[in-house]
């Protein structure tokens, strides 16, 4: 498998008053990989995602996508270039059916409305085609929301807590379906997730955020077994860490 760098972030810095939400973040994202972003609340995951998607402009640093500098570009330009996003709370028209939601997204993407059936089938949503989105179980709503993001055939998909609010016995089914679709389409994924079982199972690489910086990055087992990650992010103090200092504290 070739490992082509798709996104390259160099020296990203973002400050809100006294709060440093991103401190000197440099990371490369390889094409067609799945990166799990972990970190406690306020660690800087959303800030990083917002900078990649143009919702926030970094104070310093650059972001390159397929060799083009996209730093500070407008979100709609970045979306058009192939970076799509879904949110923690699905952005659906709750009074419309699943199919109608997809047809609206297809219309915006200037894609044939007849693709709705194919996309519903890909995401296992055929049985819900005529159900009103507001009445769908959370796992199905999440899948529908992600299917809307896939309408534009993005190269990169950013997912914000794809399993939050989903019943624990449905989480793996939701993620299995998402991963099947995105791997078949060759999409590169970054997903923010608090459930470490999901992170371990579905990530090729984990980026662990702490206090605005990347504390560790690498293979899931390496990062999730890293002593600092366990202590400061997963919240499992180690018996021998009584004298350890918090990074950046
Ligand atoms: N628009 C903003 N104005 C002021 N402070 C902000 C803003 N956005 C983020 N912050 C601060 O920046 C820090 C990083 O926040 P961020 O939302 O990136 O963290 P996060 O890791 O995504 O957390 P969560 O898991 O809660 O979503 C926090 O201290 C947050 O309060």
From TrEMBL:
PANTHER family: AMINO ACID ABC TRANSPORTER ATP-BINDING PROTEIN, CONSERVED COMPONENT OF ABC TRANSPORTER FOR NATURAL AMINO ACIDS-RELATED. Residues 7-236 form the ABC transporter domain. Gene3D superfamilies: P-loop containing nucleotide triphosphate hydrolases. It comes from the Bacteria. Keywords: ATP-binding, Cell membrane, Membrane, Nucleotide-binding, Transport. One of its GO terms (molecular function) is ATP binding. Signal peptide: none annotated. SUPFAM superfamilies: P-loop containing nucleoside triphosphate hydrolases. Pfam families: ABC_tran (PF00005). This is ABC transporter ATP-binding protein. InterPro entries: AAA+_ATPase, ABC_AA/LPS_Transport, ABC_transporter-like_ATP-bd, P-loop_NTPase. It comes from Yanghanlia caeni.
């Amino acid at each position: 498998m070739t490992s082509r760098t798709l996104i390259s972030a160099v020296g990203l810095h973002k400050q809100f008053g006294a709060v440093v939400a991103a401190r000197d973040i440099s990371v490369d994202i390889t094409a067609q990989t799945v990166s799990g972003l972990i970190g406690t609340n306020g660690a800087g995951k959303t800030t990083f995602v917002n900078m990649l998607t143009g919702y926030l402009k970094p104070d310093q640093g650059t972001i390159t996508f397929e060799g083009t500098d996209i730093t500070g570009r407008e979100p709609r330009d970045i979306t058009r270039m192939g970076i799509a996003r879904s949110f923690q709370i699905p952005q659906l028209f709750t009074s419309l059916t699943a199919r109608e939601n997809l047809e609206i997204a297809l219309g915006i993407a200037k894609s044939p409305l007849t693709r709705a059936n194919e996309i519903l089938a890909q995401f296992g949503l055929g049985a819900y085609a005529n159900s009103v989105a507001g009445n769908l179980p959370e796992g199905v709503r999440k899948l529908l929301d992600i299917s809307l993001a896939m309408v534009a055939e993005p190269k990169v998909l950013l997912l914000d807590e794809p399993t939050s609010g989903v019943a624990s016995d449905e989480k793996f089914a939701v993620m299995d379906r998402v991963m099947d679709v995105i791997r078949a389409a060759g999409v590169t994924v970054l997903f923010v997730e608090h459930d470490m079982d999901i992170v371990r199972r579905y990530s090729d690489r984990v980026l662990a955020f702490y206090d605005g910086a990347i504390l560790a990055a690498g293979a899931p087992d390496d990062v999730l077994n890293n002593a600092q990650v366990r202590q400061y992010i997963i919240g499992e103090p180690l018996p021998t860490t009584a004298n350890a200092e918090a990074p950046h504290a």
